[in-house]
Amino acid sequence: MNFVIYLLDGLTPLSIKSDQNKFFFGKKIKDNFLSKIKRKSLSFENAYGYGETYSTVYQLFTGINIYDSYCDAFELVNSFPKFINIPYYFRLNNFNTYMYSDASYNHPTEGFYKRFFNSINNNFDEFCNFKKTPKYKFNNFLSDLKKRKKLNIKKKNNFYFFHDHSLHDSKYVYRNATPENYLQGVNYSSELIKKNLKKINFNFKKDVLVFLSDHGLNIRPHDKMHFKEKISNENYDNYCPHLYDDEKIKMAFWIYSPKLKKKNYII
Description:
Distance between the termini: 30 Å
CATH superfamily: Alkaline Phosphatase, subunit A
Low-confidence stretches: none
Strand content: 15-25%
Shape: globular
CATH architecture: 3-Layer(aba) Sandwich
Number of helices: 9
Radius of gyration: 18 Å
CATH class: Alpha Beta
Order of helices and strands: EEEHEHHHEHEHEHEHHEE
CATH topology: Alkaline Phosphatase, subunit A
Mean pLDDT: 91
Strand order of the largest sheet: 6-5-7-1-8-9-4-10
Structural class: alpha/beta
Number of domains: 1
Helix content: 25-40%
Number of strands: 10
């Protein structure tokens, strides 16, 4: 079987269509692959992360409170320590374990980034932390594994973790986060997710998909808070409170399995 954890970086659940959620900042939300899967899943509503990637993902994989792992203070040399994590248990049960992230090919690799990668990669048989070239994609990762004879999809059990940056890194979303651009980016990522699952022969009659996000993105003009360019003190005071708006710190979280009944939990 395939067991997949798929994390779409920068996705707010407020942009996914449901019976209770049809508009995003007044813009009509289209049905897509993600919303269709969500309707068939065990869904957890009102789930919150830390508003950023590293602490949320680290805690997801280790179950360690960020205040015990010092992941609220990235620059500390003992932040992101190695602990037993999710792929460890899959390896114990004879699963192949693969991790693929399509972060930018020039992604930083030193300091706390290095500690984070070392912790997350721990217990994966094969991993990709970021694109090897600007156009590197998941099919390139699979092709590399096949060339090195490290891919064994015929084996009964495979665990995949995807850290998908297609929404977060989109130039039409992160730095131009209007409601229209954001929803277009979500629809694009939705189709990409569908294609990536098809490439690993994901079978909806027997496989498991845990889908989630780490945080959302602030909509213009408050997205300026995340850039290095200076902003005025007045705008800083106006924009800073929006770092904690629901579209920023809410995280998507649902589980699809043919053995689970569809249900929404309010947490």
